[in-house]
Amino acid sequence: MAKVKRSYRCKECGAQTPQWAGRCSDCGAWNSLEEEIVSSNSATNQATISRHTGYAGEQKSEVQALSQVTSEQAIRWTTGLEELDRVLGGGLVTGSVVLIGGDPGIGKSTLLLQAMASMAKRSGVNPLYISGEESLQQIRLRAERLQLEQAPLDLLAETHAEQMIATAHARKPQVMVIDSIQTVFTELLQSAPGTVAQVRESAAQLVRFAKSSGTTLILVGHVTKQGALAGPRVLEHMVDTVLYFEGDTSTRFRILRAVKNRFGAVNELGVFAMTELGLKEVSNPSAIFLSRGETSLAGSVVTVIREGSRPMLVEVQALVDDSPLGNPRRVSVGLEQNRLAMLLAILHRHGGITCTDQDVFINVVGGVKLSETGADLAVLAAVLSSLRNKTVPRDWILFGEVGLTGEIRPVQAGEERIHDAAKHGFSHAIVPAANAPRKSIKGINVIAVKHLSDAIDALMNQT
Ligand code: TYD
Ligand code: MG
Asked: Nearest Cα to 389, choosing from 296, 253, 289, 306?
C-alpha cells in the first residue's frame, strides 16, 4: 500500500528536506524544521484517510455557471443563548465551520456544553461533543454542575482525527464539537499533537469532512494571552466564522467577539457572566462596565464604544504618577500599548501637556478591550484628569478619534452613541464636530470639538 510522503520545511527560509534535522542546512536556523505532507500526493493521502475511516471523501466537483448556481437561504439554529446567537449573526448556520478561540479556563467548554445541550433539547438537533482534554466523567460532572445532565447529548472522548471522522460518518451528527483542536492528531504526520503541522492537518481533514457531509463543525482552540501561539491562528482562513472568547479570568465577565464571519457582522459582541451555575447572558452590558459609585473621581472617564450592532458604555481609568525611572512606564490594560504612546505624544505636541516624567497606567474596566479608535479622546481625558487631579463629572461622556495633527475625527454612528448616552442618564457629551447631531437631543448637552485643545478647554473650564 502506498505510503504518505512527508517532508520537512524550514519555518525561517522555506527550504525543504526529506529528513528532519535539528538545524536547517540552508539558513542555519535551529529547530525550525516542520513536518508537512507533500501535497502532490493528495490522492494517496485520501486513500490513507479512507483506509482508516471508511469514508470515501468528497466527490469530484464540476464547473457551473454562476447564474445556474441555486442559492439556498442559510438555515440557522438558535443555540438557546441569545448573546451567542447574535455574535454568530442570528444563530448557528447549518453546515458552517466555527472556530472558538480563547485562553485556557475562560469558559469555552462550558459555553459549548450549554449551547449544545440547549440545542439538543429545543431544536431536536443531535450534537456530538468530542473531547480530547477531559474524560466523559469530567464532562458529566460539569453537566451536573450546570444542571444539564438530562440533556440528550452524545459524548466521545477521542483525540485521533481519523477515528473522529469514522465515528461521525457512522453516527451522522448534525453538529460536531471538537474540544480542543490542539489535542487532535492525524496519522498522516508523525509530529506530536499540538504542533502547528498537526493542528493544521487535522483541522483540514475535519473541515473537509464537515463540508462534504454537511455537518456543522465547531472547533475549540486555545490561544495564549498574546495570541501568539501558532495553533488556532493558522486555522482562521479555513473556517467560516472565528469567535474569540475573552475576559479576565479574575473577573466574572466574559466577552465573545466575532473576528471573522461569513454569515454575519464582525466585531459583534456577546457578554456573559461566569456564575456558579455556568455562563449567564448579560443583556445590558453598559450597566456592568460602569462600576462607578456616586461621586466622580479623578482619572475616571466614561466613553461609548460601538461593537457590532450595539453601542456600549465603558469606563476608562488612568493613573498618572511621578516616575522614579529615567524611562517612565506606559502600561495599558485593554488598550494597545503603542496607541497609548501615540496619544501621549499628541497630548504633548498639540495639547501642550507633558507626561515625560510621569508613569502612565491605563485600565479599561471590566476586561473590555478597546479595538476601535473612538475611545482616544476618553483615554486622553482620563490621563489629563489624573495628571491635574481634576475630576470629569460623572454624567459627562466623551468619544472621538484623535488624529496625529491634534484634530478630533468623527467616528461611526456618532449620533446613535449620543442617544445611547442620553438613555443612560448622561447630561454632557464631548463629541467630534462632524458627529454633532443637527437637531438637539433631549436630556443631553452636546459639546462639539474640532481640535484637541477645544476638548481640553471644555474639560478644564467645566462648571
Ligand atoms: P472551562 O469551560 O473549562 O474553560 P475552557 O474550556 O475555556 O478551558 O471553564 C473553566 C472555568 O470556569 C473554571 O475555572 C471553573 C469555571 N466555572 C464556573 O465558575 N462555573 C461553572 O458553572 C463552570 C462549569 C465552570
Ligand atoms: Mg475546556
From this structure: 296
pLDDT score for 11: 77
pLDDT tens for each residue of 123-181: 889 999 999 999 999 999 999 999 998 999 999 999 999 999 999 999 999 999 999 89
- How far apart CA 367 and CA 359 sit, in angstroms, is 21
Is residue 300 located within the same domain as residue 276?
A: no
Question: Does residue 140 share a domain with residue 30?
Answer: no
Quick one: which ligand is closest to 178's CA?
A: 2
Specify the pairing of strand 253-261 against strand 269-275: antiparallel
Which of 100, 110, 222 is the best mutation target for the ligand 1 pocket, counting ligand atoms within 8 Å of the beta carbon and taking the most? 110
CB atoms inside a 10 Å sphere around CB 31: 10
**CA end-to-end span of the chain:** 84
Helix (H, G, I), strand (E, B) or coil at 393: coil
Is there a single domain that holds both residue 29 and residue 140?
no
Helix (H) or strand (E) holding 283: none
Please tell me whether residues 385 and 442 are part of one structural domain. yes
Neighbours of 338 (CB within 10 A): 10
Distance CA 255, CA 238 (A): 23
Domain with residue 203: its CATH number is 3.40.50.300
The CB of 364 under 6 Å from ligand 1? The reply is no
- CA–centroid distance, residue 248 to ligand 2 (Å): 16
**Positions in the chain short of pLDDT 50:** 1, 40, 228-230
CA distance readout (Å), 151 to 124, 144, 147: 11, 10, 9
Q: In whole angstroms, what is the distance from residue 378 CA to residue 186 CA?
A: 49
Global pTM reads 0.74
375 and 446 share one domain? yes
Domain end: 235, 250, 281, which one? 281
Which cell numbers in the block locate residue 10?
524550514
Give the pLDDT of residue 168: 94
Domain that holds residue 425: 288-460
Q: Is 409 in the pocket of ligand 1 (CB under 6 A)?
A: no
Rounded distance between C-alpha atoms, residue 355 and residue 383, angstroms? 9
In this structure, the chain runs to a length of 463
Domain count across the chain:
3
C-alpha to C-alpha distance for 132 and 208, rounded to whole angstroms: 20
CA distance 191 to 246: 30
Output the CA torsion 204→208→211→215 (10° steps).
-80
